[in-house]
Please model this.
Amino acid sequence: MPVEVSATALTEACGAVLCVVVRDLTARREAEAQRAADEARVREADRRLREAVDHAPLLLFTLDRGGVVTFVRGQGLATLGLTAPQVVGHSVFVEGRRFPGVLDNVRRALAGEEFAVAVMLDRHVFSVHYTPLRDEGGAVTGVIGVAANSTRRVRAEAAVQRYAAGLTSHEQAALALFASDLTLHQIAERLHIKYETVRTHLRHIAVKLGLDTAARAAIVAAARERGLLDEGYPAL
Model:
């Protein structure tokens, strides 16, 4: 049994007296051991959580009230060719200017709105959930976001839609290039086919989409509405 012993010499009328106090430390040592065990479990849980996030196709991030990234983690960083030091401490309102949508999303979240949205970054589609962080008084102090890489699912769904629309592989290729604003001659060169063949593909695409025109705007709008184009998702 662990004990703590303290001794004090006292001088009394009858002479010197030694006062000894023995304190049982069992309860305190058990409490300390329990606290140490609890802290070890918390550290282990935190380590496992960090490992899980690091290896999951996710991007977990937090922003402060000014839009500065205070934390970021997840395999989504590597997918985008980034590292945490390149992101943490930087403002999305500065670094994210090439993605206008990201600024709108952050502003909405900092205004107190919780929402989810499908976004695209560097041809990768993410499903992002934004949640405002609040203090005890309810004031927004920042934002926490979780972005799941849903590129494979979205592309698979687009492939199903293209199949359902009855587009051939050549028509799918022509449609993708047509949506990227290439001219018909450029599309012909890229696909190594004749100019007239490109026009034929586009006429067939228009018919399969239920259109009575092969105008670029009409075809691209109809294709995006039906999910036939991967790039039909808004930018983050």
